Amino acid sequence: MEYVFLTGATGFVGKYLNIYLSKSNSCQVQSISLRDEWTIGGNITSVIHLAGKAHDLKNVSQSSDYYEANYDLTKQLYDTFLKSDAKRFIFISSVKAVSDSVEGILTESQVPNPQTHYGKSKLLAEEYIQRQILPEGKSYFIIRPCMIHGPGNKGNLNLLYKFVSKGIPYPLAAYQNKRSFLSVENLCFIIRELLIQDIPSGIYNAADDKALSTNEVVGILSKAKNRKPRLLFVPFKIVNALAFMGDKLGLPLNSERLKKLTENYVVSNQKIRSVLNCDLPLSAYEGLLKTALAFNEGN
Q1: Which H or E run contains 193?
Q2: 3-class secondary-structure state, position 90
Q3: What is the C-alpha separation between 254 and 258, in angstroms, rounded?
Q4: CATH number (domain holding residue 93)
Q5: pLDDT confidence bin for 116, thresholds 50/70/90
Q6: 242 domain-assigned
Q7: Do the Cβ atoms of 119 and 68 come closer than 8 Å?
Q8: For the whole model, what pTM was predicted?
């Protein structure tokens, strides 16, 4: 039986993971908030650290907020783990701890060079974990997910779905890009396997097997509505001007969202796949369609 100490259980991934692990006959989950008084009890076998501050698309957060939530709390929790009887520590970091943009395919061997406080704070936490002497019998796993999605997800994918559901043509079809996604179900599967398999400590990217273009994603979202995708090839200059206006006027399309929707960001999952030695439950297509159908049911 695995006794799991879970932080961040009220977040999107945390809620899903709590249910996912609790359905397993081999896991019992203790959900806690690091803002309250807590301790890692003697029965705890694994710590999963999800709590943290996500990247702020509106850029209204203070830089100190990221370092307090993503570094200071992680350091405190990991120090306690090292002194406890728990055997495994799983830290959910981010690919943005490595790079905000990707040329080619992102692997674990790339030298980190984050540009945002979000990415820098996550990297500081990673580096702290790696610097500590690991007692015999303990292991750590630093998981770097790419863009996570699933039922109940809110964000750019949800915004894109709203475009599709209203019959509005997708205006960025002229951009030819590829990016990796990660179904929350696949992430939960990876975490569960780390709990039950004998896996070497280290850093592991987490992504679905195939990268997709945003145009392909629009096609999947359209399929959930039983519609043909409506793609509009607006010239780049016009789109950039609209995004600039969005920055000034607070419109849905701004420079940050434009980058998210059109950038190339391909992440390799070969390292985690090789150590798990099994297939992920959902393909990239199946995972996105499941998310899209959940969006559909919620409207």
Answers
A1: helix 184-196
A2: strand
A3: 6
A4: 3.40.50.720
A5: very high
A6: no
A7: no
A8: 0.92
Range of the domain at 103: 2-214+260-297
Mean pLDDT calculated for residue range 178-201? 96
Q: What's the chain's length in residues?
A: 299
- pLDDT for position 25: 80
Are 95 and 146 a contacting pair, CB within 8 Å?
A: yes
Predicted pLDDT of residue 196: 93
pLDDT tens profile 34-85:
888 899 999 999 999 999 988 655 555 688 899 999 999 999 999 999 999 9
Q: Would 228 be classed as within a structural domain?
A: no
273 residue type, one letter: R
Give the containing element (helix H, strand E) for 139. Answer: strand 139-145
Measured CA to CA, the distance from residue 44 to residue 40 in angstroms comes to 6
Query: CB neighbours (10 Å) of residue 277?
Result: 9
Q: How far apart are CA 71 and CA 147, in angstroms?
A: 21
Amino acid at 5: F
